[in-house]
Amino acid sequence: MRIPLELMIGLRYMRARRRNHYISFISMTSMLGIVLGVWALITVMSVMSGFHTDLKDRILFVVPHITISSAQGYLENWEGLRGHLGGFPGVEGMAPFVLGQSLLSRGKQVTGALVRGIDPQAERQVSEVLDFIVAGNASALQSGSFGIILGRYLARSLGVSVGEKVTVFVPKGRVTPAGLLPRTKRFTVVGIFEIDMYEYDSGIALVHIDDSRRLLDIDDAVSGIRLKLEDLEFARQLRPEIARTLNSAFRVRDWTQEHANFFRAIEIEKRVVFIVLLLIVAVAAFNIVSTLVMTVTDKQSDVAILRTLGMHPGRIMKIFMVQGSFIGIVGTCAGGVLGVATALNVETLVPAIERLFNTELFPIDVYVISDFPADMRWSDVSRVVVSALLMSFLATLYPSWRAAQVQPAEALRHE
User: Fold this and answer.
1) Residue where a domain terminates, one of 228, 255, 282
2) How sure is the predictor about 139, in pLDDT bands with cuts at 50, 70 and 90?
């Protein structure tokens, strides 16, 4: 197979021993910069995608796809809504709930928590939180038993384990001869759950829905109804449809509204990080310009001879474009391989680094989740690789054009 002359000469310039070793150093620096930039960009994009996916999944363990509540307090006669809501397309399950702020205490330990009254059977249709019980048993959550299931860090802060008792205070008071007193009730810890999300593991307590009604003195009312859909992305389209069929006394919200700013901030941060890290690749690509400019200066006599032999200026350009593009291609491929390998193994590498340096890189009380997820997406990898190759190619155009403008007579005048 015949190799194009431009490709052959360009590759020969890459492997030839140069008289000016500084050019070789700049070439290696340019290639190394592209490797590091692509490597970092793929790794960081994969980690941020992993954070986004993991946070969304863990939030949806607790947050429903769609919530229907009353605009004026508790929902009365809510049973009639269940048959109506079940007729909407895509609804996979529904469950009532009672929600209330409370203080939990045991001895001298006191902490705030969100107490959620649930029907254990119906709750499994809309949430997976009962599947993450690490101690005790969800079946012990019976009506009238006043059992409570705590998040792992909430139980730790109170210093309790399964079988021990905690006192629950709710702000809804009762009038006594001694004045207004908060309602209190002693609950027995029947389970501890852990979903690896600090915000929920430290601030959620689950009780039976009947026990929460007795505690809040709300008879048969509920705070709202939670819906689970077959496709959570369908929540945006279904929410307005449900709201139109219900009157203004109901409030309908979906999971995107519950944490809209949070998910929007993650998407914006991901775009900003992509642009910032892409600048590393851009700086390395601009170093290719320096490399080719010095190479063109060093090879002016060779270019003049080729021009004298009749080579077209366009073919001269291709020689140096091959040389510059080779730096970009090798650097991008090496960085891509390292980035993909790191992204696929980051969940193993980070704990190893933490053990090696005896430090916690991502404290769970700051970064919300306790593990370090990564979600490598080939669309992100392709975008990074294409961007790096495009910038590397563009960096070769000006020096190659200058090489094509070399005048043979002027270049050979002093040879």
Assistant:
1) 255
2) confident
**Quick one: 224 and 294 in the same domain?**
no
Specify the 3-state DSSP secondary structure of 286: helix
- What residue numbers bound the domain in which 176 lies? 65-255
pTM: 0.66
**Is residue 409 predicted with pLDDT exceeding 80?**
no
> Tokens in use for 155?
């139980």
Q: Residue 115 in contact with residue 168, Cβ under 8 Å?
A: yes
Same-domain status, 91 and 231: yes
Let me know whether 239 and 129 are in one domain.
yes
d(CA 175, CA 102) in angstroms, rounded, equals: 18
User: What pLDDT does 244 receive?
Assistant: 85
User: Where on the phi/psi map is residue 144: left (φ > 0), alpha (ψ -120 to 50), or beta?
Assistant: left
Identify whether residues 42 and 12 lie together within a single domain. Answer: yes
Q: What are phi and psi of 220, to 5 degrees?
A: -100, 10
Three state DSSP letters for 59-85: HHHHCCCEEEEECCECECCCHHHHHHH
Structure confidence by residue, pLDDT tens digits, 180-216: 667 888 999 999 998 877 888 888 999 999 999 888 8
For residue range 340-354, what is the model confidence (pLDDT) as tens digits?
998 888 878 877 877
* Choice between 74 and 366, residue whose per-residue pLDDT is larger: 74
Q: Are residues 49 and 170 in the same domain?
A: no
Give the chain's largest Cα–Cα span: 112
Mean pLDDT of 301-330: 82
Provide mean pLDDT across the span 143-172: 91
Asked whether residue 77 falls in the same domain as residue 152, the answer is yes
Q: Where are the alpha helices (DSSP H) in 217-298?
A: 235-245, 255-258, 260-298
Split at pLDDT 50, 70, 90, the class of 1 is low
**Three-class secondary structure of residue 217 per DSSP:** coil
> Does one domain contain both 316 and 347?
yes
| Residues 280, 251 within the same domain | no
Q: From CA 345, how far away is CA 349, in angstroms rounded?
A: 6
Count the domains in the chain. Answer: 2
Helix (H, G, I), strand (E, B) or coil at 202: coil
Boundary of a domain, candidates 255, 287, 321: 255
Taking the C-alpha atoms of residue 110 and residue 103, their distance in angstroms, rounded to an integer, is: 7
Distance CA 172, CA 17 (A): 84
